[in-house]
DNA sequence: CGGCAGTTTGATGTTACTCAATTTAAGTGG
DNA sequence: CCACTTAAATTGAGTAACATCAAACTGCCG
């Protein structure tokens, strides 16, 4: 498998974490920090739960490498995936200010997670306006993404929802890594797509087959290849 | 029509706005303010657009009385209602830090809207930690509400989604006003429910008929009467 | 009284779910 | 290297949920 090319390669602020030049992690850390005191890294295998709903945690988490997802479990056992986490993502911006959250987080691939103590980050918030700006930005992006997901789930057909999800992930991947030949690494099972867009895995399989047959896109073996991004946008655009 | 009883009746900080003791408006204002300089009120009739998507505004808006809703318009003309706004609600917490938002806002009833200059609020943010706390709180609540809506749209049937919406609105109303005999003022047309939960108005009508026939709840003439809140919770609970 | 927006009801079509069987892919241990 | 196992994906057939279209019916207002 080809080595990932990361798009941004500023000075690595943290030896253990190749991605903290982007997103929140990089903004909070400062050169003079002896970080070991209040920041720690974990490497976690695929499939493991990283955070449990309704449990207080003193840490704010950032995904440094690999993929994860944020979800809620419903009483009937079904699961709604709220969003996917890519390298550089905060689990949730609200976790900076609230120690208890209503969702759980799971590792999709093997991941590297950074945990930073909430009180230290909040101290930084008042001291450093740049940190506030970064937090505000990721907050605004999260809110807009949530609203888009609501619109996709509420107004789009199955094809539309899946097209929207693929486009959304494509854009996020493209913002982080260099993409060659419209091929995007997408380590999702059809079950994850199903739980994200509110369809059954069986139906997801059928829709993806249609996309393949029509020559729009092919998702298999963890790679999404897009042939007609125009067609995909026609199906899954919200604006 | 009976006069609304408001639950919280602290000192009114703003003569024009009966509700700014609750929510954001009250927290930002301070006694010594000569508010007229940077805060203004509008009274707007039902149905009017209060904010247009993608247009910059120097103001942060709070709904002081009446109902409104936040929505996006899709290219095919369909509309997704993202949430309903009740007295005391910020249009959106993110509008405090971003001058351009991706959604529109409309008045559902006649409303009273307060607009406060963003720069003044941001000045308050750095000066007064209590304001930060209030903002953080409404931010966290908004994020949780969005996640709940995603879960409802993704995992629930039509009956479940409508039950969830009714319960959600009941709780929000009960937090603001005293409720007598399980009767909640709900100035929504079935079209609004449809656009919020992603069903057609026709289907909403059928589901509400079912709720009536089963003796669960009756929504008509702008009033929701709940007979079996247990049954409603069984249908529409997410946790 | 007529007009209009909202709601209700019926008939029919489409989308997506369920259940079940089959195929594919990826291990794992002999 | 090959049987055996297991998770994932695919395919088909039948069904349930929801949309669409169209026609009444309601309340309200001028």
Blueprint of the fold:
Two copies of one chain form a homodimer.
Chain A: H1 23-28, E1 39-44, E2 49-51, E3 59-65, E4 68-73, E5 79-85, E6 104-107, E7 111-117, H2 118-127, H3 129-155, H4 158-176, E8 183-185, H5 190-197, H6 201-213, E9 217-220, E10 223-226, H7 229-236
Antiparallel strand pairs in A: 1-7, 2-6, 3-7, 4-5, 4-6, 8-10, 9-10
The structure holds a DNA duplex (30 and 30 nucleotides).
Polypeptide structure, described:
2 copies of one chain form a homodimer. Chain A has 7 helices and 10 strands. In chain A, β9 and β10 form a beta hairpin. In chain A, strands 2-6-4-5 form a 4-stranded antiparallel beta sheet. Chain A has a 3-stranded antiparallel beta sheet with strand order 1-7-3. A 3-stranded antiparallel beta sheet of chain A has the order 8-10-9. Chain A starts with 22 loop residues before the first helix and ends with a helix. Chain A is 38% helix and 21% strand. Chain A has helices spanning 23-28, 118-127, 129-155, 158-176, 190-197, 201-213, 229-236; strands spanning 39-44, 49-51, 59-65, 68-73, 79-85, 104-107, 111-117, 183-185, 217-220, 223-226. The first copy, chain A, is an alpha+beta fold and 239 residues long. The A-B interface holds A 72, 74-76, 78-80, 82, 92-94, 97-98, 102-103, 136, 139-140, 142-144, 146-147, 149-151, 153-155, 195-198, 237-239 and B 72, 74-76, 78-80, 82, 92-94, 97-98, 102-103, 136, 139-140, 142-144, 146-147, 149-151, 153-155, 195-198, 237-239. Chain A binds a DNA duplex (30 and 30 nucleotides) through residues 157-158, 189-191, 199-203, 205-206, 208-209, 220-221.
């Amino acid at each position: 498998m080809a080595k990932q090319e990361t798009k941004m390669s500023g000075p690595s602020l943290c030896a253990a974490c190749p991605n903290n030049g982007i997103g929140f992690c990089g903004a909070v850390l400062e050169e003079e920090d002896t970080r070991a005191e209040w920041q720690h890294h974990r490497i976690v295998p695929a499939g493991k739960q990283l955070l449990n709903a309704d449990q207080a945690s003193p840490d704010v988490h950032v995904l440094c490498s690999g993929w994860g997802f944020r979800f809620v479990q419903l009483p009937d056992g079904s699961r709604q995936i709220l969003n996917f986490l890519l390298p550089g993502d905060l689990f949730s911006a609200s976790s900076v200010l609230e120690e208890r959250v209503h969702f759980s987080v799971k590792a999709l691939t093997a991941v590297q997670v950074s945990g930073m103590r909430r009180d230290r980050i909040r101290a930084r918030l008042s001291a450093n306006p740049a940190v506030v700006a970064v937090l505000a930005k990721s907050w605004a992006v999260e809110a807009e993404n949530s609203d888009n997901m609501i619109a996709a789930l509420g107004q789009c057909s199955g094809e539309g929802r899946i097209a929207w999800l693929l486009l959304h992930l494509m854009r996020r991947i493209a913002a982080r890594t260099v993409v060659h030949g419209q091929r995007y690494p997408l380590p999702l099972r059809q079950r994850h797509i199903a739980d994200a867009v509110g369809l059954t895995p069986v139906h997801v399989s059928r829709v993806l087959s249609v996309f393949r047959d029509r020559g729009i896109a092919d998702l298999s073996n963890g790679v999404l290849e897009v042939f007609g991004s125009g067609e995909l946008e026609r199906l899954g655009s919200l604006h």
